Structure formats: structure tokens, C-alpha cells
Amino acid sequence: MTIIDYGSGNILSIYNGFKKIGMEVNVSDDIRVIANSDAIILPGVGAFGAVMNNLVNYRQVLYEHIKDDKPLLGICLGLQVLFTDSEESPDAEGLNIFNGSVKRFNLPNEYKIPHMGWNQIRVNDTSLNNTSLLDNVDNEYMYFVHSYYIEPEDKNLITATCDYGMDVPVAIGKDNLHALQFHPEKSGKAGLEILKNFVDTI
Predict the structure, then answer these.
(1) Among 32, 108, 138, 148, which has the minimal tally of Cβ within 10 Å of its Cβ?
(2) Distance between CA 19 and CA 162 in Å, rounded?
(3) Taking the complete model, does pTM exceed 0.90, yes or no?
(4) Is 153 marked active-site?
(5) Considering only the top CATH level, what class is 2-200?
(6) What is the torsion angle, in degrees rounded to the nearest 10, for the CA atoms of residue 75, residue 54, residue 59 and residue 196?
(7) DSSP 3-state assignment of 158?
(8) Domain boundaries, the chain
(9) Catalytic residue flag (residue 76)
(10) Based on the number of CB atoms within 10 Å of its own CB, is 22 exposed (0-12), middle (13-18) or buried (19 or more)?
């Protein structure tokens, strides 16, 4: 299992999260190491356009990994870049694994942007897709820091939401591909449960 070190990720906290559950993971920017990994973690912090610039050399290895149906976990911007585009960086093209856009929150004044801090997630039991990553964490509180949210064309991708002035999609799942808007590695016991669930998919 490898965390991709492409210059735009909260790598240390994710590495330490897996270490807490007894899982040693690789951290690498080497495409050969990534290509040979049984599972990939795609982190991401910063701006959508900058992240996509940093990912330019990793597009093909990510596409091949997903095509081979090997587990992938996207975290924060690692979720957003799976979609087509983002209002944050209109000229940047996402990985386009899924059709859909990333939108900026447009909320009443009482809702601060960014959405930062703890919020309760609700697992979407009606999703036709894979919600196994979220086993045992329904209604738990997770840690968020984001000003943009995903808007998938296929609503069945959405495996969890939270309430922040609207019904915010915060997790997706399809086959062995999972991604989260929140930070499981910063979300205490419930977040570590998610990391364990991901390890179980390998």
C-alpha cells in the first residue's frame, strides 16, 4: 500500500493514522513503486489547479490502477480531483474518473466558509454502490476543512453526506474506489475505523 507523494498532500498525518492501526505503508513519488502497489492512497490539500499540475505525471498510473480494480482511497482534494472540473480552478481538468463538478459553497451568512471542524456524517444506505468503507461509522463525527464540495452526476456514487446548510456529499464509493471529503486520519477513533475498513479491502 502506497501514499502518493506528489507534493500536495497531508502525508505525515495519513501515514501516522495507518501506523496507529498497525499498518506500515509506503510513501513514494516513484511511479514504478506506485504501479506495483496493491492499494493507493491519494491525498490532497491546497488548490484544485495546483494539485492537478502536480499530478500530471501520475495520471496514467492512477488510471491503470483503477482499471485493474485495485483499491484506491482519495482524501480531501484526493476526492475532488476524481471529477471533471472545479469552480476553484476553471481552466484545470480533473482526472475525470467520474462525471461531475466541484462547486464552491454558496450558503447563508451564518455558515462560515471554509466548512471547518467536526460534523456528523450519515451513511447512505440506499446507495447502489460500495459503502463498506463506512461500516460502523454511521452518525459519527468527522473532521472537515473545505470550501468546495462535489456534485456528481451519478448520485448513486454518494455513500455519505453531512448537513452544512445543505445536504453535502462527503464520501463516494464504487467497486474498489473510495474517496472522502473529510480527514479520517484526523477524526479520532471513528476515522481510524475507516482506515481499518480500507485495509480490509486489500
Answers:
(1) 108
(2) 28
(3) yes
(4) no
(5) alpha beta
(6) -20
(7) strand
(8) 2-200
(9) yes
(10) exposed
The three three-digit cell numbers of residue 25, written as one number? 505503508
Contact 34, 28 (CB under 8 A): yes
Q: Find the catalytic residue in 65, 140, 183, 193.
A: 183
C-alpha cell at 60: 496514467
pLDDT at 73 (0 to 100): 98
Dihedral pair phi/psi, residue 177, rounded to 5°: -105, 125
Going by C-alpha positions, the residue among 126, 125, 143 that lies closest to residue 134 is 125
Q: What is the pLDDT of residue 127?
A: 74
Distances (CA, A) of 47 to 83, 102, 147, 151, 194: 14, 12, 10, 17, 25
Catalytic residue among 76, 88, 162, 178: 76
Q: How many CB atoms lie within 10 A of CB 90?
A: 9
Q: Under DSSP, is residue 180 helix (H, G, I), strand (E, B) or coil?
A: strand
Q: pLDDT tens, position by position, for the chain (202 residues)? A: 999 999 987 899 999 999 999 999 999 999 999 999 999 999 999 999 999 999 999 999 999 999 999 999 999 999 999 999 999 999 999 999 999 999 999 999 999 999 999 999 999 987 777 789 999 999 999 999 999 999 999 999 999 999 999 999 999 999 999 999 999 999 999 999 999 999 999 9
The pair phi, psi for residue 7, each rounded to 5°, is: 95, 10
CB distance 18 to 195 below 8 Å: yes
C-alpha–C-alpha distance, residues 79 and 170, integer Å: 9
